[in-house]
Amino acid sequence: MSDAKPEAIRAESITKTFGTVVALNGVSLRVARGETLGILGDNGAGKSTLIKILTGFHQPDSGRVYVDGRPVSLNSVDEARALGIECVYQDLALVNGLSIYHNMFLNREPLWGGLLRLLDHKTMRRRAREALAEIGVAVPSVELEVGQLSGGQRQAIAVARAVSSNARILLLDEPLAAMGAREARLIIDLIDRLKSRGDIAVVMIAHNYAQTLEICDRVMLIQHGEVTFESRTAATSAEELLDIVRREYRAARTA
Amino acid sequence: MKRGPKNATGEIAEKAFAARLPRRALMRGVTIGGAAALLAQAGPRARAADVGPFPEHPKWKFVFVNHVTTNPFFVPTQYGIQDACALLGVDYQWTGSETSDVAQMVNAMNVAIAGKADAIAVCLVDPKGFDRPVEAAHAAGIPVFSYNADSKSNKRLAYIGQDLFLSGQMMGERIVKLVGSGKVAIFIATPGQLNLQPRVDGAMDAIKKSGADIQATMIATDPSANAGLSKIQAYYLGNQDVKGLFGVSGGDSMNCGLLSRQHGLASKGVRAGGYDLLPRSLEAVRDGFLDFVIDQQPYLQGFYTVMEMFAYKVSGGLIGPADIDTGLKFVTKDAVGQYMNTKSRYEGSAKDAAIIARSGPIGG
Amino acid sequence: MTAPGGVARRAYALLLRPEASVVVVSVALIVYFEIANRNFLTDANVQTLSQFVAAPVIIACGEIMLLICREIDLSVGQVFALAPFIMENVHDVGVPVPLAIVAALLVSALIGLAIGLITIKLSIPSFITTLGMLFLITGLTLTISRGYPANTEGGPVLTGIMGVWGYAEIVWALAIVAVMHVVLRHTRWGLHTTAIGGNIVAAAEAGIAINRIKIGNFVLTSTLGGLTGLLEAFRVGSIDPLAGGSNIMFLGVASGVIGGTAIAGGAGTIIGGLVGGIMLGVLQDGFTLQGINAFTFDIVIGAAILIAMIANIHLARLRTIGGRA
User: Fold this and answer.
1) Which whole number is the average pLDDT over C205-210?
2) Which residues of C touch B73 (CB under 8 A)?
3) Range of weakest confidence among A183-187, B29-33, B202-206
4) ipTM
5) pLDDT category, B118, cuts 50, 70, 90?
6) Quick one: pLDDT at residue B204?
7) What is the tens place of the pLDDT at every residue in C265-322?
């Protein structure tokens, strides 16, 4: 099923070094439209760095990135955004004191009044409601301050923000971390709905093997800055992944 | 000296205080000053009389606007105001700025005008800043007097205080007598402000007119005594050939004395002096580190101002206005003893009212 | 949100806004002072009251923006004192007064720019930067003025607009409050300032130009400080090196904080700054009118500020608890 879908984003042989630490060493990945890729690995394995390179926050030392098959150089977050790459970070990047709709349009606010450049609150509220409805997230009012929402709702808002800014490639950094089962369910359902749209490619960094296998179409294992395993989730299992991890671990200990 | 015909009363009152003349001599003229001296002589018993010889009147409110409301120099002034108010059955308010902030003082005056004060007294520390508020007060029928500092161009009815320029001149003459020739520094805490600048100007004027070979420089210090001491110290260390260090305010004068004591300047032939009777200044005079301090009699600045305001109100504006010179006294080593040994309400060093005993002939 | 009983709920929500408690306290104070002294609401006193209020409020408009993005300017009171001397010096070399005023404002803005650049580029806490600036500018003012006060110059229309007309200053203050309120609530500048204060990481990740906004707010505050100094100098007719200082800075910050701007940053209200300034002005004017003497004055003002703040914080807590989704 996967190769028939158009490719959304592809990275080839990405290498990134910080000082003397080699964060990524020749990592490649490929995600198609409507597909969800899960990236697993220990802390410090290089997952966050990879995401930051894909969003334009960092620039790779070597390697190429292709969006919709065309080579691109992502020199800034703005440039990546312009190409439809949005990221939902671990800290959610939400301002607690601002309302839901202000957060959703932060630094992309629609304006009116010509030279006055005044914030168009009404339009923002309307579009926020529409965006939330579209991906099936329910909140009592878009005027509520984000700080007053539950963890799952905040995550959902963060995702909705990315989607509403016409993200075509959605990167999620540990979306289910520190979330109870019920809240995680909310997000899992949300990601399912995104998938069923068919036009968004989702890359998800995660820790929980079971959840990742449930949500994602394909899964990738990164250890010590290298890809040690890659497969369609249907063709693998949590045990197999754990085996690979244990092997690496033992090898590292006896080394 | 500005003395109008009405000022005779001020003269009598001052002499009465100083000389403690027997009551009988004063009964001859029921002048306000006489009445005041009379009643004060009688002591606490007289204060029970609410109104004295005057007709019944409302408890007028006199607002005093000051530039350094918390400065100890004005404590005897406030006592003077309190005593006069108690004497005459009127009320007062003490307000203004703590930091010589003219805008704050103007605000306080405006509130007094809006609050329909019965009379206002203000220290005119700025040449023009108070012109409009004073005009506004007069337009509203409120008489305004200035005390402690004056501005010639201002339309205030009268000034009660020391003739600042004259006192500066007298200090200048004394400097010439003490120093003879050489370099002299005159320190001023707030240059340009009208409660201090005229003294410096007067001193410079007298020094120049005397023709003596004295190079006098004006040095700015600081409204705060601590910072001022550092500045005076710094000046001295950079100019150790100086022959005289003089201040025109209490803090600076005290600091000149402190400096002289620290560096043993008196024995080196460096003269020093200044204004106001701060305790440390008096000690310095007693111990020979200051040659003199000038008393501007702050008690009278409060007392007489209330008297004038009262006279104006009770006579419907027919009495007054009259400038009152609250005098200038050089306090030197021979007289300083009595000042130091006396804790008196009239000098601000004690709260309780008590007659200060005095005996013997009056010195020159 | 428009459920039945929505009107009552909206009214309740209005009362829980940070500005509301200060309005309530101010109204109570005005009523008290008017009863205690019939002269409080007279034309003359209202004008005097407006003069108490105007200067701290204008300063507050700048400080509030800085407080929101977790900065502060301690030196604004010194720029207040410096600006009129710049105007006077520039005028002395032959420049007409209106241009001299512009020059003074430009210098004020440049000082703000310097503060912003030092704070941001050299990563020095703004508290420290502006503390140093405070002394620096004090010395600069004393040097330029040689410690002497000076007179303001200008024709009747210009000086009238700049403060001689009794209500000029409060008109300026209200106009600036109106503009700054729109900036804070209805422009990107204001929204992003709030975002920076609320979660600087989020603001950075959203691509907001954090440095530009912070530096801009420093420039704004210093310029407003200079403008206030000019207005007060014209009102009194005298330019005084001792004017303003830390006192006016504290009054400005206090107006903002009493009005509901969090001193720790992240949230603020310009209207609150106006209301806080009114409350402080009512206190100062009212008690002076009452005849409170200088010594007890400070006790009374201090106690009043504490009481107002306690009421504020209590109501703010209710707001947070009651507003949970």
Assistant:
1) 87
2) none
3) B29-33
4) 0.83
5) very high
6) 94
7) 888 999 999 999 999 999 888 888 877 877 787 888 788 778 877 877 777 677 666 5
pLDDT at C83: 96
- Specify the residue for token string 């002497």: C148
pLDDT the model gives residue B51: 61
C212: contact with A, CB 8 A cutoff: no
CA dihedral C222, C223, C228, C229 (to 10 degrees): 70
pTM above 0.80, yes or no: no
Residue C298: closest C-alpha in chain B: B98
Name, in order, each residue with C-beta under 8 angstroms of B43's C-beta and a sequence gap of 6 or more: B353, B355
Give pLDDT tens digits for C145-202: 877 788 888 888 888 888 888 899 999 999 999 999 999 999 999 999 999 999 998 8
Identify the pLDDT of residue C21: 77
A150 to chain C: nearest residue by CA?
A: C325
| Residue recorded with tokens 């995660």 | A206
Alpha-carbon gap, residue B236 to B243, rounded angstroms: 10
- Distance separating alpha carbons of residues C107 and C104, to the nearest angstrom: 5
Q: How far is CA B126 from the centre of its chain?
A: 17
* Interface list for C 153-182 with A (CB within 8 A): 182
Q: Do C44 and B110 touch (CB under 8 A)?
A: yes
Decide: A and B in contact? Rule: 3+ Cβ pairs under 8 Å.
no
Cβ pair A106:C202 closer than 8 A: yes
Span A102-159, pLDDT tens digits:
999 998 899 998 888 999 999 999 999 998 888 888 888 999 999 888 888 888 888 8
Q: What is the spatial distance between Cα B304 and Cα B307, in angstroms, rounded to a whole number?
A: 5
- Using only C-alpha atoms, what is the Rg of chain B? 21
Of the candidate ranges A24-38, A237-251, C60-74, the one whose mean pLDDT is the lowest: A237-251
Chain C nearest C-alpha distance from A150 (Å): 9
- Within 8 A of A119 by CB-CB distance, chain C residues are 185-188, 191
Interface of A with C (CB under 8 A): 77-78, 81, 89, 91-98, 102, 106-107, 109, 111, 117-119, 121, 139-141, 143-145, 148-149
The residues with which B67 forms a beta bridge, in sequence order, are none
CB contacts, 8 Å: C147 with chain B: 190-192, 220
At a CB cut-off of 8 Å and minimum separation 6, what does B328 contact?
A: B162, B163, B166, B167, B170, B294, B295, B296
pLDDT at B35 over 70: no
Instruction: Report the amino acid identity of residue B110.
Output: N
What is the token pair recorded at A166?
């016409």
